[in-house]
Amino acid sequence: MDRPRIYIVSDSVGETADLVIKAAISQFDCSIVTKRIPYVEDKVTIKEVVTMAKLNHAMIAFTLVKPEIRSYLLQQAEEYSVPVFDIIGPMIDQMQNFYHISPKYEPGMVRKMDDEYFKRVEAIEFAVKYDDGRDPRGILYSDLVLIGISRTSKTPLSQYLALKRLKVANVPIVPEIEPPEELFQVPKEKCVGLKINPKRLIHIRKERLKTLGLSDEASYANLKRIQEELVYFEQLIEKIGCPVVDVTNKAVEETANLVLGALNTEREG
User: Fold this and answer.
1) On the chain, which terminus has fewer CB atoms closer than 10 Å, C or N?
2) Which residues fall within 8 angstroms of residue 39, CB to CB, at 6 or more apart?
3) Coil, helix or strand for 245?
């Protein structure tokens, strides 16, 4: 005797239905064959599946969100006396009736959400790995390269933009250290410089030194030193030819919008 068979029909990849069916199968001490039929959006395929199920004495389980396709499968299954189980339809109907909201009826939404989530996680991991010039090789694989002297919000900005699924590397600029050669190998359209008012930067750096338990009289927070760094930064940016965003007194969200705007303008130009 042939093993019991279940056809899994979906208008997406069918992962949701597959998981539900496998969970149910695990409750039985027998081998049940499953065959997944993904991306079903036409009545011809529905007809073929129902015919196969009838011939093989099989069941059909499905996740179809478009009402007309769901209805057609149910009608065909009834006509051919094929047992059928709607996995997601009753829940959609219940939510629609109870909350008085309209569903999108768009296949594959769960997978789209999952893809967005994993892209965001990947971008965050990228920002951490290539933060503060830690590994210059990341510059070549990034969507965006932020360039700036110390305390110009490179790290928080990288993390914030990662939430928008952008892979961001950031490069600290120090006069005594040659910038990585990778910085000159990427298109200028991928780079954005971050500048800041010197007096504002003095305040930020002094506060940073205090939190570290160091004297705020260090050269790190000295106006002359900061001006030297900014001059070096401007020379480098001119050499690269990328746009610059002023981060003075701006929240990370505001700076991010300016960076994205500069990036889009540069690419469109």
Assistant:
1) N
2) 10, 11, 12, 13, 107
3) strand
The pLDDT value given to residue 111: 63
Q: How far apart are CA 198 and CA 150, in angstroms?
A: 12
The model's pTM is 0.63
Q: In sequence order, what DSSP letters do the residues of 90-103 get, joined into one string?
A: HHHHHHHHHHT---
CA distance 111 to 107: 9
What are 169's two structure tokens? Answer: 């590397």
User: Contact 28/82 with Cβ under 8 angstroms?
Assistant: no
Three state DSSP letters for 35-82 = EEECCCCCHHHHHHHHHHHHHCCCEEEEECCCHHHHHHHHHHHHHCCC
Measured CA to CA, the distance from residue 202 to residue 60 in angstroms comes to 69
Q: Which pLDDT score, from 0 to 100, does residue 14 have?
A: 87
Within 10 Å of residue 148's Cβ, how many Cβ atoms? 25
Report how far residue 113's alpha carbon sits from residue 165's, in angstroms, rounded to the nearest whole number: 13
Q: How many CA atoms lie within 13 A of 96 on its CB side?
A: 12
Sign of CA dihedral 177, 180, 184, 186: negative
pLDDT of 72 reads 95
**In contact, 101 and 95? CB cutoff 8 Å:** yes
d(CA 36, CA 7): 6
Res 190: pLDDT = 95
- Name the residue among 219, 195, 187 with its Cα closest to residue 206: 219
Ramachandran sector of residue 81 (left: φ over 0; alpha: ψ -120 to 50; beta: rest): left
